[in-house]
Each structure stands twice: as structure tokens, then as C-alpha cells.
Amino acid sequence: MILQVALDLTDIEQAISIAEKAARGGAHWLEVGTPLIKKEGMRAVELMKRRFPDRKIVADLKTMDTGALEVEMAARHGADVVSILGVADDKTIKDAVEVARRYGIRVMVDLIGVKDKVKRAKELEKMGVHYILVHTGIDEQAQGKNPLEDLEKVVKAVKVPVAVAGGLNLETIPKVIELGATIIIVGSAITKAKDPEEVTRRIIDLFWGEYMMTIRKAMTDITDHIRSVAENLKLEQVRGLVDAMIGANKIFIYGAGRSGLVGKAFAMRLMHLDFNVYVVGETITPAFEPGDLLIAISGSGETKTIVDAAQIAKEQGGKVVGITSYADSTLGKLADVVVEIPGRTKADVPTDYIARQMLTQYKWIAPMGTLFEDSTMVFLDGIIALLMATFQKTEKDMKRKHATLE
């Protein structure tokens, strides 16, 4: 969760004073409220950013027209996030998103005044907005309304982060956390408090209970998955990998993204064990020749650069070990030996790593989307343990080859 403090004041000095206390209390984002912008103009945004360069500054413009113009103005004055009204014309919102993308900032669309919030939220998500705000205004609060019912429906309807605002305080915040809000916007409960810093700190403490639950749950899910992978390793696959390594003249390791980092860690340990090992892509990597081995790491088995390298290795008369989640993938079919490491469950995501990075589209069902890499890392550490025992190498032996120019 993110705590955004709404500075709905009209005096810039008072706003900065309260912002300082909220920041000391741990507030993540500081909102230059609509009244403050109307009173001071974009100067208020600029002053706030100068005073708090380490915080995200939200310009609550509530733009209804000329989205491109107003987002550009806010961006030029230091805003990191700009609010647009959900009742605005689609073109206004699309223009705002386009300009925000150009300046590297974000658009938050406020659903205040929108009748069918779920329907509009889905439309806004398709337009590419970054955040959707479920907001019960001050006048609505006076009539006894609150954002909780709408929040639950919107959170379930969209995948973009959902913010919530409207009379939130220490008593109501636990409920909006439970309903799945990502950004919790608090105004008067902090700005009118006798001790804004203390109230902010108490709100952040509420967040940390949820943070720790999330971390522990992710760690448990990951370790449970790795335990399952260990129990289901196929002896013939592991034996094929180890035999190929022991018989190789040179070992080349290649992976993309996180898989590449896992491969580099494995290569370092093999070097400590006196293997003749190289990482593909490094400037000192020599030519691949007959009798050499390529260990190619790709969860999907379809990453183009990895598949291309495997094809070249085969053409050069060497062997390929593919470490992948899919034995029937292109890499799996090319490899002499396949080690299957089950990973994340995928849906609607390009299989090629580079395409995924360019599109920045992820929809992982597994925690954090990194189960393949985590499992592969632990598996390869197990291989190192086996090789240490096989060649009677101790940690002391390996440390002799550890880098000294660091």
C-alpha cells in the first residue's frame, strides 16, 4: 500500500509544514490539493517538489478538459502524478495519458461524480490510465456516503492499482486495506490532527501488518514450490546434465533477464570448482567448438536469443542442455538433455522474453512471476553441492579462486 497525504489547504507555507511532518511519519506521496493549486497555481507543485524531491508529488488538478495541456504543465513543474476526472471526455483522458507517457509521469483518474463506477473503471483501464481513484467527496460525506462499497467492486473489476479517498482515518483504513486498495489517500485525519507526524506513523504501522503478511505468504509459496520441484526432479535429466558438464571441453551458459543472472551465479561457482566456464555475451567469451557444452536457461523455452544460441551450438557440433519449464518447447526439442523446472503459470503473455519486456505485460498467477528462476537458482546450487562432493572440493578450496579485485 501507498499512503498519499492530501494537502487540501489554501496556504502554501502551512501545507509545506504539514507535509514535512507527514513525510517524517513515513508518508509516501504528497498531494498538492485542488484548493492549493487554485490559490497558488503550479507554483505550489514546484515548491512541493523542490522541498520533497524524495517523495512522489501528486497534482490534484481534477482536469475536465485540455488533458494534454494540463498534464504537460504539471509535469514541467515537477508533478509525478496528475489527477483527471473520470467524467471527462475519453479524448481528454487519452491525451492526458499520452502526454504523461512522454514525460514519464502517471495519470490517476478520479471517479467522483461517475454514476456507474465499475463500467467507467473498465473503460479507463483500456485507455491505459495508471491509477483509478474511488473518491467520496466532502459534500457526499456530509450526506453519510463512504467509498467502501464502490471500492470493493472496482478492485474486483480492474487490474490497475486502485486508490481510495473520502473521510478515511485510523478506524476505517483497516477496512480499505482488507478490500484491496493500493493507494490510500488521507486528508483531514492528518492535516487537522494535533500531531500530523504521529497520526501518519500510526497509519503506516497499519500498513506494515499487511506488508509482513504479504512477504511471509510469498516466501512460503516460493519455498513450497521449490520443495515440490526438488521432490519431483527426474534422475535421468539431472544425470544427463552432470554427465554433459563433466565431459565438456568448455561450458557456456546463457539466459536472458533473471534467468541470465541465475546463469551467471552458476558460472561463478563452476569457475570456483575449476571448470572451464564462460557466460555467453561477455567480451572474453571464446568461440564455441565441437566438444563444448551450452547450458541454456529459459522458462518458456521460446526466448529467441536463447533458442538461436542453442541452434548455433548444435551446428558447431556441441551439446545443449536446456533448463526450461516446457520440454516440448523449441529449446526443449533442440536440446540433447532437458531438465524440467516447473515455474509460473502463464496467461495472455508473449513467450519471448524481449517481447515481454517491450510490452511490459505480465499476468502471473504464481507469486511474483519468478518461480522458475528461483527454483532454477536453488536447483543449480544443489548441482554445485553435488560437484563439490564428487571432486572433493571444500569451501576453502573454492575461496582460493574467489575474486579479489572487488
TrEMBL record:
Q: What EC identifiers does the entry list?
A: 4.1.2.43
The source's domain of life comes to: Archaea
Which Pfam families does this entry report, sorted A to Z?
Answer: OMPdecase, SIS
Keyword set, alphabetical order: Carbohydrate metabolism, Lyase
Extract the InterPro entries matched here: 3-hexulose-6-phosphate_synth, Aldolase_TIM, HPS/KGPDC, OMPdeCOase_dom, PHI/rmpB, RibuloseP-bd_barrel, SIS_dom, SIS_dom_sf
The record ties this protein, via NCBIfam families, to: RuMP_HxlA, RuMP_HxlAB, RuMP_HxlB
Stated name of the protein = 3-hexulose-6-phosphate synthase
Source organism per entry reads Thermococcus peptonophilus
